[in-house]
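Re: the request from the purification team.
They wanted to know what the chain is likely to look like in 3D before they choose a buffer screen. I agreed to run a prediction and write the result into the notebook, where they can find it.
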Amino acid sequence: MPVPKIPAVPQKILARQHEIVADYRRAVDAHLADVVAGRATEMLEIRDFAAQLCIHPTHLSNVLRHATGHPPCHYFEARILAVAQHLLTNTTRPAAAIAANLTYDPSNFGKFFKHFTGLTPKQYREQVWAERRAAAPEIPETLTI
C-alpha cells in the first residue's frame, strides 16, 4: 500500500506566519521599552498582544509554536530576562527597583531570574561586575610626570 504524500504548506500561509511572528516580536519589544521607560505600568499578556495583532490568542500561540518551536511566553520571558540583565549590569539601581520597574514583586522577580539564569539578581550582578574588573587592565595607582 503506497504511503500518502502530505501536501506542502502553501507559501502564502508560511509568509503570513512569519509576518505574525515578526509583528509579535516587535510588539513585545515595544512594550518592554515602554515598561522600562515608565510609559506602561502593567505587563501585557499574550491575549493583549493577540488583540494588538487583531488575531485570536490561540491562533497566535499556534503560529508561534509552529514557526519557532516555542510557546509565545518563551520569547516574551527571554526578552524580559535580557532587559533585566541589562539593567542589572549597566545600572546601580537595586534589584527591587528593577523588579518594580518590570512590574514584578521583588520576590517573584528573584524566582523568575533564578529560574532562567541559576543565579539571584544580586549574584548575577556581582558575577558580571567581577568579570569586568578581572578583564579591565590595571591602572597604576600613582602616575609620575
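For the purification team: The chain has one domain: 11-135.
Please add any questions underneath this entry.
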